[in-house]
Amino acid sequence: MERYLPILLLFFVAAVVAGVIYAVAIFVGRIPKGGPVNLDKERPFECGNPSDGASTLRPTVKFYLTALVFVVFDIEAVMIYPWAVKFSALGWNGVATMGSFIALLVVALVYVWRKGALEWEK
Amino acid sequence: MSSFLVALAPLLVVGLGGLLLMLGEAFAHRERGGSGPSADLAIGSFVTLAAGAVVAFSLWLVGPENLGGAAGVAPFLIIDRFTLFFDIVLCVGGALAALLAGGYLPEHKLDRGEFYPLLIFSTLGAMVLASAGDLLSLFIGLETMSLGVYALVGFRRGSARSAEGAVKYFLLGSFAAALLLYGGAMLYGATGHTDLAGIGAALRGGTLTGADYGLAIVAMVLVLAGLAFKVSAVPFHMWTPDAYEGAPTPATSFMAVAVKSAAFATLLRVLVSAFGDPASMSWGTGWPPVVALLAVMTMTVANLVAGRQESVKRMLAYSSIAHAGYLLVAVVALMTQPGIAQGSILFYLLAYTVSTAGAFGALILCGSRGKEAVSYEDLAGIGHRHPVAAAAFALFLLSLTGVPPTAGFFAKLYVVRAAIGGGFLPLAILLLLNSVVAAYYYLRVLVYMYMREPAPGAPVAAPMRSGYVTAALLICAAGVMLLGLWPTRSLELAIDAALAAR
User: Fold this and answer.
1) Which residue among A29, B198, B330, B356 has its CA within the 20 to 30 Å range from the CA of B461?
2) Is B477 contained in some domain?
3) Do A32 and A71 have their domain in common?
4) Dist CA B168 CA B162 (whole Å)
5) Which of B12, B23, B32, B218 has the most A C-beta neighbours within 10 Å, making it the best mutation to test the interface with A?
6) How far is CA B102 from CA A58, B64, B65, B79, B163, in A?
7) Does a structural domain hold residue B89?
8) CB-based contact (8 Å) between B211 and chain A?
9) Which residue of B has its CA nearest to A2?
10) Same domain, yes or no, for A35 and A67?
């Protein structure tokens, strides 16, 4: 269990650092009672630019399908990279394994396509 | 190269069948209106899952020890009689749910084809879970199974109850999976193994230092908690009634039957292979007292609460929790009587599968669109209006109660015998007392069906007619009677399977 002591210490240091930063920010940024109100300081932080546009953006819900499909094929890429590195060592066994994996994903793509999830406007 | 394909044949058959059905559903039913996709897909799913069961049974006859390929997939997937037994149970549970869905979904205007591929892939995940011999494959199987089931619970998209059940199940399920993973990570940290046999060997060897041993104990508790969630043992049962009630009834049947069986399969595997060393299996320093406490709480709380339910579906949900409690009693008996206790668990799961799937099927048959039978009052007088459905319902409820000569009687008998033989007399007595309490709410359904008439002017549930549901009920009834009248042969098979899981 002693081996995990550094991790515990890390947590402790992280908590102290975060706490100190908060305390300093609150101390430095406090407004004295009855003091002048600085309008710029009251503004929601936006990289120093004047705030612009409505605060309630409405992203279209259609993004969720794109996101889901993206995740599937992103993972595919992650799986294929190590195979490419070890291609010659794995030989035909690797080709067969990876081939069946990609075939499964092609089936998924066909399904998604057929179901109309790739069409932006229905 | 190809011999491992033979060993994996049940998984491959189910997986490929699921893919074909998924594509078929996407290509065939593009037009709106007309008859929905259920008819073809229900039969297709039934055939796929039945084929999975048949393939698993033929591998059983060949003998998994004669399959050269079985060693090739170990320890990630262990192909032995234990696995094949569960493959059969899970495929039967899935196939029955597919038949029930064939009648239920069109009747309740839920006729969307995705149900069937989701069902099949969940079954596939459950089969992987039951055969997993490594924490990694165990987790993959668990998630494959659970993700499909989460979607099935939320299948009634317009229903607030369905959404509530799905969200609760999903959140608590993810939490439980995280506990399980955390425990798995600690086990790997303590022993340096992810395969269950390796973990077991490390614990048995007694070479762990004090700190690592403490880590392994914490890991054991976390893994137990994660699995107790999946078998819905009290106090990890809070999601069960809501998820079971919100889900479409065929999905409820699948959860109560297949998900629970798979969870028990992996619980047995983990407790026997990974935590099977003498120290972990002893009353003083191991898991048996924890599981015994879970069993006592699960039985007692579930039965007391089930008696107070006004919805029959919710009552059946609590009843499934109670049955998990009875099974946990047998799990405790693993400590002193490993072979007999495991055999009794497997037999119990088989009997429980046909009885519970049948009970949910009969509940489906008693209602129709907009008039689903939910409360006891809805069932009043069904005995005269729809004698066949009522008779089937009565048979399955008697089996769940444990009345001879049904399957449930021998299932309980074997569990009690294992508990008494193992020296756990108090647990056995508690189990019997709980069965008496349970008889109250099971028989209450019978009283309403046969001895009450609906109040004048009250809405009555109009029974539906469906060949699919009737077929499923016939299969379940045959199973209940066969296991009840000739239990010895199936018990021998179950003990064979249990002895294989060494």
Assistant:
1) B356
2) yes
3) no
4) 10
5) B23
6) 40, 34, 38, 32, 22
7) no
8) yes
9) B211
10) no
Report pLDDT for A44.
64
Give yes or no: residues A38 and A73 share one domain.
Answer: no
The DSSP letter of residue B379 is: G
Do the domain assignments include residue A6? yes
| Residue in A2, A107, A114 nearest the CB of B19 | A107
Task: Report if residue A106 sits inside a domain.
Answer: yes
Write down the mean pLDDT value for chain B.
89
Name the domain count of chain B: 1
Whether residues A110 and A67 share a domain: the answer is yes
A-B contacts at Cβ under 8 angstroms: 19
Query: Residues A32, A70: one domain?
Result: no
Note whether A97 contacts B: Cβ–Cβ < 8 A.
no
Q: Tens of pLDDT along B347-400?
A: 999 999 999 999 999 999 888 776 777 788 888 888 888 888 899 999 999 999
Q: Is B227 inside a domain boundary?
A: no
Distance (Å, whole) CA B137 – CA B120: 18
Contact of B399 with B356, CB cutoff 8 Å? no
Domain coverage including residue A98: 63-114
Residue A80 sits in the same domain as residue A109: yes
Q: Which two tokens stand for residue B275?
A: 């935590």
Can you tell me the distance from the alpha carbon of B89 to that of B101, in angstroms, rounded to the nearest whole number?
18
Residue B334 falls inside a structural domain: yes
Neighbouring CB atoms inside 10 A of A29's CB total: 8
Contacts of A110 in chain B (CB under 8 A): 23, 26
- Separation in Å, CA B464 to CA B247, B249, B253: 19, 14, 18
**Amino acid symbol at B443:** L
Contact assessment for residue B327 and residue B264, using Cβ atoms and an 8 Å cutoff:
yes
| A121 touches A60 (CB < 8 A) | no
Domain count, chain A: 2
Q: For residue B265, what are the CA distances in angstroms to B47, B130, B259, B342, B448?
A: 24, 5, 10, 10, 36
Q: Identify the residue with better confidence: A10 or B501.
A: A10
In a domain, A54, yes or no: no
Domain span holding position B307: 287-502
Task: Report if residue A110 sits inside a domain.
Answer: yes
Q: Report yes or no on whether pTM surpasses 0.80.
A: yes
For B211, nearest residue in chain A (alpha carbons): A1
B16 touches chain A (CB under 8 A): no
